[in-house]
Amino acid sequence: xxxxxxxxxxxxxxxxxxxxxxxxxxxxxxxxxxxxxxxxxxxxxxxxxxxxxxxxxxxxxxxxxxxxxxxxxxxxxxxxxxxxxxxxxxxxxxxxxxxxxxxxxxxxxxxxxxxxxxxxxxxxxxxxxxxxxxxxxxxxxxxxxxxxxxxxxxxxxxxxxxxxxxxxxxxxxxxxxxxxxxxxxxxxxxxxxxxxxxxxxx
Amino acid sequence: xxxxxxxxxxxxxxxxxxxxxxxxxxxxxxxxxxxxxxxxxxxxxxxxxxxxxxxxxxxxxxxxxxxxxxxxxxxxxxxxxxxxxxxxxxxxxxxxxxxxxxxxxxxxxxxxxxxxxxxxxxxxxxxxxxxxxxxxxxxxxxxxxxxxxxxxxxxxxxxxxxxxxxxxxxxxxxxxxxxxxxxxxxxxxxxxxxxxxxxxxxxxxxxxxxxxxxxxxxxxxxxxxxxxxxxxxxxxxxxxxxxxxxxxxxxxxxxxxxxxxxxxxxx
Amino acid sequence: xxxxxxxxxxxxxxxxxxxxxxxxxxxxxxxxxxxxxxxxxxxxxxxxxxxxxxxxxxxxxxxxxxxxxxxxxxxxxxxxxxxxxxxxxxxxxxxxxxxxxxxxxxxxxxxxxxxxxxxxxxxxxxxxxxxxxxxxxxxxxxxxxxxxxxxxxxxxxxxxxxxxxxxxxxxxxxxxxxxxxxxxxxxxxxxxxxxxxxxxxxxxxxxxxxx
Lengths: 202, 267, 211
Prior knowledge:
Distance between the termini of chain A: 14 Å
Order of helices and strands of chain B: HHHEHEHEHHHEHEHEHH
Radius of gyration of chain B: 22 Å
Oligomer: heterotrimer
Order of helices and strands of chain A: HHHHHH
Number of helices of chain A: 6
Number of helices of chain B: 12
CATH topology of the largest domain in chain B: Rossmann fold
């Protein structure tokens, strides 16, 4: 049983003690963990800046990165109340880029290709027919801007009720997947305690 | 009695869950593994790789997701080593780099040499913008990577035959949109089980070539490559954990319906 | 000054958004080069933003200590951890044995264990809240239980057909509904993205004096 594994086991047991009641040991661990999290982010951020911008400027004379460094320092102005507005410029660059990327992703991958895949399904097969229904019916449910009293509105609303059942089936399956994911986390921790630390059941 | 069924102390619930998961870890139990179509597709993609193919692993594994993603990654690395693939690992989350050191050691134990057979790239921030930058100009994005035989042989993202994305969130969709689809590169999404519903439609449409999902997906992959690991060991524990949850739901509903009947019929 | 604070950011968003979008549609090397630079800068600025997060945490902790808020003493632990571990990582390197020991023996088990609390909260929630009150709830519960059992080994022990049914639920109705929702969300994303780029959405231009 090496020291590192034993320390990790103690940390795990102290963390799990919270399930049975808050206590000073857990609070100490919690603050230590948050501090290390922030430190890890800072270290990786500094290394990122060094690798991506500082080294190219100093070692290779790529002076376009000076604009990047200036923009990054402007981001840090967000820390002060008086000069926080200075951070808007680099933030706007990020927002512009991510907005454009999200449009590209949405249009090509999430609308065109998904609709094409649905249209190309074999609707004469049982699975294909059910798939198309389960795509269309929830959309009928999610149309809230329709006049329910009109004939077509009433038809859409009725179809929407069927869409609700399809959605419940999907959300139930999602719930099952969520349970699987969460239980896996505990399995991982107990595998470490029982098999890696105590060497039982191996 | 029926009212008590709805008021079980939560510490009993917690202790019960721990016990149900712990027992099969102490006394291992073999359960069958059913291979899903998504895992089979992921396996087939790697199996079809010609020897010496370049594979990019853009990973965001961190402690919260390691229980599911690490067994998947190790199983796929074992498979990639069998296929003698050249592996480039790019961390896309600040917590990921130490995990890559572990995988590098694993590859070196299998005879891989850094710079020739595998590479660890540095962490870069940005998530979707990072993937878009990779897709736009991969070499420029990782400009400061030291020259080596493997790095010099890569001209851009198109040099990769396969991209594997271990992640517990939306990153597979970003990689699909900005790397895999524009450059027609096969892609495997290696994900936590909770993300599968979001990724499934893209697997069904063929935009994502294979999906390894959750600890069960890792167990399936381990059985396909015949290298048992943590996931196969954990399946019995996972099963009993699920049975405990189902038992709790049933108990809660029995109590609910029994007391509802009393409230409806009683004075 | 107002132009610098309000209009310049919107202009930057417009230019960057248009360049990155246009690069998708036009094969024009200078445009591609400019778009790549904008993406590289985004990556760099994101790194600076991470430092901002840690600095803010230090500031909040210092405030809690000064104001003697509840459990204020623990904030010393937090501040020492941030500063000490950062200095260790930056000066000794991220491959240093002490750095990796603390990472693997303290940080990894702490985070992995704390996130696993979700399984316990979920168990408690399943017990208290999942009631088969109506047909929709019954469908939800049956689908959930089927997937929970079918996707793992015990499913085929209970009933041979269970894994197949669970796989069908995930591949057909669940995938279809998620596709339906995904397309709707994507349409919304296009709208919000365009509004942001052309400057109709101004919420992100915040921080500091608005005048």
